[in-house]
Design goal:
This protein has two domains: 2-245, Beta-galactosidase, Chain A, domain 5; 267-650, Glycosyltransferase (Alpha/alpha barrel), CATH 1.50.10. The radius of gyration is 26 Å and the shape is elongated. Helix 7 (326-337) packs antiparallel against helix 8 and helix 16 packs antiparallel against helix 17 (594-610). The protein is built from 18 helices and 38 strands. It has a nine-stranded antiparallel sheet. By secondary structure, the chain is α+β, with helices and mostly antiparallel strands. This is Glycogen debranching protein. Residues 18-225 form the Glycogen debranching enzyme bacterial and archaeal type N-terminal domain.
Length: 670
Amino acid sequence: MIKIPEAICKNPHSALYREWIETNGLGGYSSSTILGLNSRRYHGLLVAALNPPVNRYVIVSKVEETIVIQGDKYSLSTNQYPGNVFPEGYKYLKEFRLTPFPKFVYEVGDYRIEKTVFMIHGQNAVAVKYLVYPDRGDVELYIRPMLAYRPFHSMQKGNEPLVSDIHVSGKVVKITPSAPLPPLYIYHSGDMFREKGFWYNNFEYAEEAYRGYECHEDLYNPGYLIHTFYQPQHYDAWVLFSLDPMVVSGIQALEDKEISRRSKLVKNLENDKGFLEPLVLAADSFIVERDKKPQSSIIAGYHWFGDWTRDTLISLPGLTLATGRFNVAKQILHMYSQKSVSGILPNFFDENNNPIYNSADTSLWFFYALYKYLQYTDDYAFAKSLLPLLREILQSYTEGTLYGICTNEQKLITFSEDSLPLTWMDTIGGESRSHPRKGMVVEINALWYQALKIMEHLMMKFDLLADAALYAHQAEEVRESFVKVFWSEKLQYLYDFVDGDYYEESLRPNQILATGLPFSVLPSPYRASVLEVIEKQLLTPFGLRTLNSDSPCYAPHYRGGERNRKYAYHQGSVWVWLLGFYASTLVNIGGRTPEVRDRIHGLLSVFKEHLSVGCIGSVSEIFDGSIPYYFRGAVSQAWSVAELLRVSCEELQNDDGKFKPLVSSSRIYH
């Protein structure tokens, strides 16, 4: 349980920087601030994935709640309008908890109102439950749903009719939108639904204003529900919003089912539960179905990311293997194995679920994710079934494939494409680079070496000794060339990329993959030097900077309009996921000694406090490069959470290279 105390809840400035998110395993979610005040266009009580896990729509933006006690009205809602906060329901907010659902505790006079929000796993549906104490009667609750019915990147303006029909049948309200979108079903325990359509104008979203985007929206209220709390025993109320027709007579069974599902995820978690339990539950929020079929993927981050292949493969060990969800990992690997084109895996899927192929490294990360899967499961039969794909990837990279990706005379991977960013540093603003990041790129060649070593390992396992010898020889050629090409004797670290006669000397964190992957391409004598430079110039409490602070191109803060943020994204911003490979570098160099473990414990301990800010119970995408290292970007990022879990499992829990999941006694498949 994570609690946010009254002092923060009643301070809007502090509370606005604490958000919550509930997810449904389809890519949909429910999210807002702990005040219930939406500060982003992406916030919404029901954000549905109409083509799972993408094509997301804000259906219900929020609900406005008014409680009537002995005739006196008190609003529990809080909204930001231009120059004004109204109403001020936050003044009654006593506490916010994550238990595991978001729970809001209000106190009005001597009455206590507890509100709980949870999603129905596998459905575009969200439930809101209210408990009122003491149960003396004379209390009414008015609930006004505020509808948006728009793509989650856009804004709603009250120019056109939003609803074409409202049908009330008992305790079910069916709202049919004017647009060709699914109807909304409202199930409730109230006395009645009173239809009264009205537009509420000019809701202001502070985060959108800060980011330089349109920040005002109109929302439509089709009417309101009235719940009367009778004495005695009748002190609860609920409402459920769904895009699918359901048979609903109450929500307790739905709540119990979801509590049971999440309890199984953490049931046998033994170590550091206060830190790891929220991370394991956060890990679950990123695992989604694709196309409502029995295949899985990983959402890269909330709120705006879809499933990106690179992020998925880097996140897979922490989100699925360290948490014991081996079958989910296998489903993900199998799904992506079917998407190869000329040895290239997709970079991401667009809003229509079409794979987009514009990456030079995702195929190489597939080898990493598969090898990690084998370290946990020994499922070499599955690996054997993937050999045709693995051979295709290596052959394509060797002989040449999309975007000019091929091996050169130095046996290293190079590519010539300069109109598209093909590496993970894919958002470079304006004048931040004088030379495109192409040619021979340091982390891609570290991954190339690793892929060859993993293939050698598989050939040995399958007793294909001649093939193993060929891959071993190819890997050794790569290793010899890697040092000759990338090592700078003058700088005592690795060039970030080399393109013909151009050597990129900027100090970047990408070289940490040359030291932190399971098969390190960098010989031992060079690793300590790289580590020393990174620790002195790139390491921060929350991860590695993307550029050293002495560089004239360094951006200390990720803020302002889109142009400024794009520039800072990879010009100094701190990325959490890189911290995982820094920790693995410590182990690769120093072993799992008590001293190394103590250092890694220190790295992880910083994030215990972070779980109570940003997105409660999760970890942000990036942080500012300079003090005070403010959290930025997506509020809940898959590979940030994943790497903290992977390091906790692999570098702190195990000594023999055979990894045992943190949730140790069961294998969770769904």
